[in-house]
Amino acid sequence: MAVCVAVIAKENYPLYIRSVPTESELKFHYMVHTSLDVVDEKISAMGKALVDQRELYLGLLYPTEDYKVYGYVTNSKVKFVMVVDSSNTALRDNEIRSMFRKLHNSYTDVMCNPFYNPGDRIQSRAFDSMVTTMMIQVC
Amino acid sequence: MADEALFLLLHNEMVSGVYQAAEQGEGENGRCITKLENMGFRVGQGLIERFTKDTARFKDELDIMKFVCKDFWTTVFKKQIDNLRTNHQGIYVLQDNKFRLLTQMSAGKQYLEHASKYLAFTCGLIRGGLSNLGIKSIVTAEVSSMPACKFQVMIQKL
Amino acid sequence: MAAPGDAPPPVVYTMENKPIVTCAGDQSLFTSVYPTLSLQLPREPMEWRRSYGRAPKMIHLESSFVQFKEELLPREGNKALLTFPFLHIYWTECCDTEVYKATVKDDLTKWQNVLRAHSSVDWLIVVIENDAKKRNKTNILPRASIADKIRNDFCNKQSDRCVVLSDPLKDSSRTQESWNAFLTKLRTLLLMSFTKNLGRFEDDMRAVREKRTEPGWSFCEYFMLQEELAFVFEMLQQFEDALVQYDELDALFSQYVLNFGAGDGANWLAFFCQPVRSWSGLALRKPIDMDKRELVRRREASLLDLRSYLFSRQCTLLLFLQRPWEVAQRALGLLHSCVQELRLLEVSVPPGALDCWVFLSCLEVLQRLEGCCDRAQLDANVAHTVGLWSYATEKLKSLGHLCGLVSEEGPDSEDLNRTVDLLAGLGTERPETANTAQSPYKKLKEALSSVEAFQKHYLDLAQASMDMYSSIGRTRSAKLVGKDLAEFHMRKRSPQKAELYLQAALKSYVAEGWALPVTHTRRQLAACQKLLGQLEDYLQTSSLLASDGHLTEDERRYFCQEVVSCAQRPPDSPGRRILLPLESFAQLRELSFRPAGGAVHVGGTLAVDVTLSSRMPAPVPLEQLGLRLHFSAARGPAQPRTSSPSPCPPPLAARGGSPAPELHAVLERSPSDGDGALASAGIICRNVHLLLRAPEPAPGPDAPTRLVLEDGPHALHREGLTLQPGDNLVSFQTQAAEPGTYTLRQLWASLGPVCFLLPRLPPPAQYDVYSQEPQLHVEPLADSLLAGIPQRVRFTVTTGHYTVKQGDSLQLSNVDAMLVLWDADRRASVYSSDREKTSDTTLRVQASDRVTSIGLPAAPAYHVIEFELDVLSLPSAPAASESIGEAARPPWTTQDAQGAEPRMATTDHKVSIDCPWSIYSTVIALTFSMPFRTTHALLSAGTRKYVQVCVQNLSDLDFRLSESCLLDTEGSADLRLVPLHTQALQRLHSRQTLFFVWELLWGRPPPPALQCRFSLGFTPDAQERAPVALRPYTYDFRLEGFFTLYTVCAEIRPPPGAEHCRTGALCSLEVAVTRLSDLLEADRDEALAQGQEQLPTRLLYEVVDNSSNWAVCGKSSGVFAMPVAARATHRVRMEVMPLFAGCLPLPDVRLFKYLPHHSVHSAQPDADSWIENDGVSVDRPADEDSGSVRSRGSAHPAGSGEHRGLPMPRLQALPPGQVFQASAGRQVLVLPSGDDHVLEVSVT
Q: How distant is the Cα of B94 from the closest Cα of chain C, in angstroms?
């Protein structure tokens, strides 16, 4: 169960970011923004990486005492960042991976939505509700 | 195959639509190419997002170009690019000896003067795809004898 | 993860214990060999084949040799592995049988029995041979016989358990060989023993683990058990395997904790849930932390103890494996998970205890790594350690907060108590770090000791982790730490330090478009700047915040208030302006001019409408809102300019915006083949150079653009208005002064010293001021002026820069053909430049015979005076010469001639007007057109004559016509014109034609020509009584030779016998020309030409049938002489044949006067016509109108032409009046010829 889900543009500005509870929104914004450091690191490292490390899923970006931050980057260099509560130990890598897949799927739908032009903030309700399911769904 | 036919026909209609609009004086004719190209651009962006969803991450530029020539082209035009050449300086030439959008016109030089209309969209398609993969580029095209045609991709070095 | 290969191997804490090998038998002998042995044994590796399909390993064996004692052998059930003797060796160098029998044998037997008793089968007997010894012996047995004896005494069927080592202390090849053989044997046996015993051990262990669900099971016990194994692996330097053991334990424990969290708690776990009492971080310096181990063994370890111990072991092994960075990583994970586990197990932890533990642990790990890696390595692997650094920093910070060390007013008593408790929890410093200056323990103690110390340590740490972050390019993380630092500094009331960090952070957030962090950081920055008293920056930040939607309404209001109030505060230094960018305050939405187009005349007023949308949450009173103008006297064109700057897009949307490619289709024609066939078609890009240029870094939105408030003479102000939130429409009024172009440059809004400035208006907006010359226009109201009746014209005076004073007047120099009419109540109205009526006065007009002067009403500059006057152009007859052309036209044909709309005859009148503003007089031309078109015709009936005048109304008006009259201007006696039409006044509607007919009566022979004038009174039907007496419309014309001289009568008779003509049958045409009168004035001249005696006039007749109903057979024309006498008749006969059946009109018969060439009058021969016509030239009208003849006036087309050479006869048309076609209009019935099958009917 994610506490924060963010979609970040090529140019590193947030296309979409949502978190629960909303009062700690700011904290998550900072966290996600900071996590971009690691994302960049991983992506650039990926340049020289071997084939097997060429998965879109970047794995755990970094853990903090209370949260685990996971990353995912699409081929279009759009980054997904998901923050998970550390106490939620049931969540294994595979669940995270599949959650990212779901995220990616609905992001592609957004991209193909005529009312969305690439680079704008994501307003799509469909996307939003999908994220909601991720946030409440207990894996 | 129906989907393919649909795409081809739709594309034809689009081209003629744009040009008719230009006849009625919305925008001078030069813009038509650009207009079509821009349509292609947006479509390319969307398509590439879909197509690369399940592919591994790309190693480098060349890797991406290969993807465009193989998977992308196959999905859109039901065949691969026949020949990809590059100078390793950011210029790639994609040669398609039997370009789908031209095949339904008569081969050879007949209608040659109209050929470029039917390439503009695809130019945009490539440019849009690449740009969504983070590669800024300019795509131009050339036909000397239909249905064979070349697309030239000039990549903007960042 | 592994350290770079080139790095030196880490310091390895070799374990003191090695696999134990006991030695029995001859001790002294063993000691003599021992050095070599211990040296040789590890030298060569040996392959160790493992059970459970584990990969074989090469091992360098070592062992500690101890003297054999029975108590060394493990009792039943003792699982200890470390102390387990893996091999037992018996040493002897006995070489004679006696000795053997006597002592050695028994000894051996005893030894074996002991072993057997403990069921240990790993033993070896070594026999050492010594040549030296042998020499001084007498009874020598064959070599190795002792060994043989021993073999069959002891080693039943495992003879390899007895080896001979010969001359171990010599060095000879033999010695070498035997050593090698021996060592190999020794190693093999050792390994066999390992395999056997470890295998057994592992089985036992596994069995224990299987029991873990049973109630009595204890983790600690199991821990000890598996660790034993780990130890052994470590002992064998199989660190990998050793590590695996610990990792398994780790995983097992974690799993238990998780399960506990999930609900099913193993009871043994309960023990780990005891409240944390000591938090003296990790201890990694000793290979084995024995006292912690002891705690575990005694089942007294707390969770932290267990974890610490476990990790210290893992750490050690990882270091052995030269994977220091993994240590760092695992450490971070461990610390986090510990915190989590404590939470999960709901272990009660004193506040801050964990922070201490984590802090100490971080530092411990870091120092441990520093201990075993050199700088270069450390720097190269910052990425792995930085996490620990920042974690430590974080923890120290929270400790600081906890112990009240960050507040400026130091810690209070309870803070101190808390601190004391915390320190107590650290216990005493461990001996191994006691004498290291910077030990974590010391650091923490010191840091918590005083505010200053804390600050120092905290800053150091934070700085360190910041530098590390930035050194590995994790700028964002660095910025975040920076922000913490800033917060710290703020708490310490040292904003100047904070500011930089905040600025840096803010910059990156803004640059990457992270709204919330931006807002948050900005708020901090604001506070900071306020403290620093950086008024300018503070105001800017506040205004930005005030317009920030992410803040609550109240906060926004607060910052807005800040700006306003600060503006009201009297400026510290008078005249000092604080310039701030306008965007933060308000946004220029739209800008437009009134009048639109932004062109205004000098002195005119122009309004600039500015739509400014205020971003402030509350109304803001502005002292002044201003527009800075740039004036250029260069007169620019005044095309309309209305600019609406698009609201500036978000910085990021702009970022993507690179110029779009300009694509064009191109066709390439091959130059080779001439027809230029297409070689190729394609698409090219026109602006490649633009696009492929590497993008210049777009300046961040907050790029420091120097704001400069331009000053200059030209500006527009509005004082004291209040900007409401949202859109405000402000319009600037200006009185246009000197002509030129005014460009809008800057927009500023000032409140007190604060001045929000828009340094450049997005699109260049400008307006033009022009000055204009005064002008006079005169144009008719109707589209065309009609002559003869009063017509209205409008006078328009555009005053331009000239001011019309009272008494200024226009002087019209009169034209006699045109009158200017006016009446008393004519009004002149004055309009302002934008067409609203300002005044309206009666017009004063005086007229002398020369000039008419029109007094203008006083009017200011750039106004328009308008008034209307009537003008009357006197109607005059147009030259009527060619109108005789109509003469013979039958009346009915005149009608359809109207079809081709004839144009009105026009006359121009030029009036010169003197205007008060200029010395030159303006000349205006008015064109009047004649409403009527008049034609006349002379009609004959035999000798009776009628004059027909046809008046056509071309105008759109209807007219009332009165007293039409026709009179002979020569007034020749007894010539009367008797009107045959009605005399009453008539209406002539638009586009209508009216005919007047007079009969011409005379007594005496009339004059050859008549000069007539037709006159007609007319008034427009519309208006009653014309303002002035209108002149009648007159039309002059001349009638010539109107008296009939000849009648021509043609007749066609059917061929004799037939009573009707038939097609194709020849009929006879008889033409009779009769002279009606004697010599008359009319043809006097010709007569004179012949001298006195009366020569007969020579006439030429011609029969033409241009409707080709008739075929004329034989000659159709001929000349004959006609005596000048009344009743003289000439007849001509000829044959004609009707070509059609039906009632056919007769062919025309034309009559000409024939003048032979010798006649004087042929003085001007007509070469052209001669060339045209064979033999005779005919003044034949171009149009073949039947009987239409040229009037005398145009009788000599080239008459005035120069004389030509050869003389030749001429034909002269007779004036229309002189010939009367008696048979005109008569028809002959022609029947179709009987034998015709087809009946042709031609209708004419």
A: 14
Residue C620's domain is classified under what CATH number?
2.70.50.60
User: Does residue C671 form part of some domain?
Assistant: no
Instruction: Specify the residue for token string 């017009």.
Output: C843
Quick check: helix, strand or coil at residue A4? strand
Q: Determine the Cα–Cα distance for residues C264 and C250; give it in Å rounded to an integer.
A: 19
Helices (H) and strands (E) in chain B, counts: 6, 4
| Subunits adjacent to chain C (3 or more Cβ pairs under 8 Å) | A, B
CA C588 to CA C613: how far, in whole Å?
6
- Confidence grade of residue C1188 (pLDDT, cut at 50, 70, 90): very low
Name the closest residue on chain B to residue A74, using Cα atoms. B53
CB contact under 8 A, A89 and C261: yes
Contact B113 C667 (CB under 8 A): yes
Contact C339 A65 (CB under 8 A): yes
* Axis crossing angle, helix C440-449 with helix C413-426, rounded to the nearest 10: 170
Instruction: For the full predicted model, state whether its pTM sits above 0.80.
Output: no
Same domain, C209 and C242: no
Interchain CB contact of B70 with C (< 8 Å)? no
In a domain, C496, yes or no: no
Same domain, C608 and C733: yes
Contact residues on chain B for C685, CB-CB shorter than 8 A: 138, 140, 154
DSSP secondary structure string, C1023-1087?
A: SSS-SSPPPPEEEEEEEES-S--EEEEEEEEPPTT-SSEETTS-EEEEEEEEE-SSS-STTHHHH
My answer on whether C209 and C150 are in the same domain is yes
Contact at CB, B142 and C695, closer than 8 angstroms: no
Residue C433 scores a pLDDT above 60: yes
Min Cα–Cα distance to chain B from A66, Å: 30
The nearest alpha carbon in chain C to A33 belongs to C476
Q: Indicate whether C1023 and C1117 sit together in one domain.
A: no
Same domain, C100 and C125: yes
Which domains, and CATH codes, for chain A? 2-136 (3.30.450.70)
By the CB < 8 Å criterion, does B42 face chain C?
no
Helix, strand, coil percentages, rounded to 5, for chain B: 55, 15, 30
Instruction: Decide if A111 and B49 are in contact by the 8 Å CB cutoff.
Output: yes
The residues with which C995 forms a beta bridge, in sequence order, are C950
Mean pLDDT, residues C770-799: 81
Looking at the fold, whether C117 and C150 belong to one and the same domain comes out as: yes
Sheet-wide strand order for C64-67:
C64-67, C20-25, C85-92, C123-129, C162-166
Verify that C721 and C610 share a domain, yes or no. Answer: yes
Structural domain including C186 reads 20-213
Which backbone phi and psi does C611 adopt, to 5 degrees?
A: -100, 115
- Cβ–Cβ of B143/C662 closer than 8 Å? no
Cβ neighbours of A46 in B, within 8 Å? 57
Q: Rounded to whole angstroms, how far apart are CA atoms C1097 and C1083?
A: 9
> Could you give the percent of chain C with pLDDT greater than 90?
0
| Whether pLDDT at C1198 is above 60 | no
| The domain boundary residue, chosen from C873, C899, C928 | C873
Of the candidates C666, C679, C692, the beta carbon closest to that of B138 is on: C692
Minimal CA separation from C799 to chain B, in Å = 44
| C76 located within any domain | yes
Q: What is the ipTM of this complex?
A: 0.85
Domain boundary among C182, C197, C213: C213
C933: left (phi over 0), alpha (psi -120 to 50) or beta: beta
Q: Which residues pair with C579 in a beta bridge?
A: C755
| Number of domains chain C contains | 6
- pLDDT greater than 70 at residue C740: yes
Please check whether residues C169 and C302 belong to one and the same domain. no
CATH number at residue C805: 2.60.40.710
Contact residues, A window 43-72, toward B, CB-based 8 Å cutoff: 46-47, 51, 54-56
